[in-house]
Amino acid sequence: MSIIEIIGPYSLSPRVVDLFHSNPSFTFLLHCFTLYMWFLMNEYRSLTDYRLVQSKNHLQTSSMCKAIVLIFSLILGFGMIVSCEPNRTSEQPEKGNPVEAGTTDSRHQDPHPFGGWYCPDNFGGFPPVDIQDLDQIPVVMDRLPTEEETRSGTSLMYIDPTEYPDARPLIMRLPRVARIHSRHTGIHELIIVIQVAIVGDDTLVGYRFPSGGNGSAWLGEVTFLSEDEVAKLGSAPMVYRKAEINASKEQIWSAFTETDYARGLGKKFHEETFFSSGWTDASEVHLNVESDDDRASGFVATVYGNLYLQIDYVRQGEHFTEKLLLVENTQEGKTEMHLVSGPHPRGMESQTAGWEKFFHEVKQRSEMKK
What we know:
It contains nine helices and 13 strands. By secondary structure, the protein is of the alpha+beta class. Strands 1, 2, 3, 4, 5, 6 and 7 form a seven-stranded antiparallel beta sheet that branches. A six-stranded antiparallel beta sheet has the order 8-13-12-11-10-9, with helices on one face. Strand 9 and strand 10 form a beta hairpin.
């Protein structure tokens, strides 16, 4: 039983409760003191009731039992120091990752809402971008961003200085291309870092995906690429189309299932039934197929009320992705459709033409179903 449980029935101020949770050593010492007082109080009662004890040996035995209980409790309390340590992320910094001077422990420590974001469908804030076009990406480098800048896509994490008065930016050149191992896709994905900030004992990284969307992580989870490494990767253009369609997401999905692309997905992933069925908010499928030099994985599901498809491919060591997002406005009877495919370092023109045809086919068929 912890000290919080012991005094739980009494009213404690939030500041006192925070002290218990944020300072394991203080909690341990107070725990020991409470047990020691408990021991003295019980010993006093035993002496007061001495006349009820039948023999001196019984009193000695009673005292010895209490001492054993105290020692056991102290050992248990010592274990609290370990169990009450702030949580650490299981991810370890990758070897060879260049850490800038002035950073702090890049593992998660104090509780805050900034690490571990994953929003690969946030095309409105962070549309797809070529990794060779870094000069076209606005960033904030030498200060913390304003709330407006985090809403406009200039930065990602708004860190309120009144709530985190010691927070500060890590001064470094931005934006920068890096890699991160995604626990969602299982792939070492390319990212573009647009923000690095120190909050408490954590160094946090805000980034955007070249395929659109954003995420955040701890500094030790990313590996920055050198300028030469980025240059060797070459251009990585993305096909990106969006349009407002006069149809519901169910009607658009119905039109989608009539395309060669959808039929091809059903055959590839052995999910012909799913890719030929109607859409409901309960519709969901996880996709995975592997061969010697080809791996593909993804899912289709309702995400925050939106229909979202994402499939990641790794072919001969090269990663590319396909995304489809349907954001419906039920009041107006319209749906915004976003389509992403890439990168396509080779054959970009033919890829663009093919996806344009698919996009307009879905749009036209959807509006005919209205």
